[in-house]
Amino acid sequence: MTPKLANIIVIFAIVNIDNLIPDLMELKERKQIALLVGSLRKDSLNRKMARVLIDLTPDTMDLEIIEIGNLPLYNEDLEENTPREWAAFRKKIKEFDGIIFITPEYNRSTTAAMKNALDVGSRPYTHNVWSNKPSAVISVSMGAIGGFGANHHLRQSLMCLNAPVMAQPEMYIGGAADLFDEHGSLTDSRMEELVHKFFRAYSRWLCKFVE
Q1: Where do the structural domains in the chain lie, given as residue ranges?
Q2: Is the dihedral of CA 139, 38, 64, 4 positive or negative?
Q3: What's the number of CA atoms in the CB half-sphere (13 Å) around residue 42?
Q4: Per CATH, the architecture of 3-71+81-207 is what?
Q5: pLDDT-above-70 percentage for the chain
Q6: For the whole model, what pTM was predicted?
Q7: Inter-axis angle of helices 45-55 and 189-207, nearest 10
């Protein structure tokens, strides 16, 4: 069994929990969902996954990648004359109904860019833009464990920020170097079905917090 196939089967077993939950809740209106990509590399696997999500988005959602690479490192001293990048980012995130975080794993954690985005959005202290935003985390990695460490480290920060994170399905996408062709399209139809199941679960999660 190849590493690619093994990883897909493991993820399928986790996501298949989705089938046990009846579709009792449906979104009444189209929702705006922000995609935050932890990797800044232009051709990163995480960015490719974000584009796949956009291509497979259900008609109840609109997805948009919000760039985080231009945000100056958070420094509270700068709040006296707030950088325009911070102000624009905070304003933009407030407009969304939910957030999907897509992260690689760097040293068993998420990336510095992702953590900086969380810090920028969480301040000033009483203006946390992440609060009550229904969220989901997807980790994408070439490794066999699919960014498990980054996924859970990011979830820990989001809990502190009062961002309700969907518990299931857990999306650890390993062996990701083999999942995309030269155009960034998925090479395995089973992965496409996993994405559809993820969206069905996330739709139900959204229903718990937005109408």
Answers
A1: 3-71+81-207
A2: negative
A3: 0
A4: 3-Layer(aba) Sandwich (3.40)
A5: 88
A6: 0.89
A7: 70
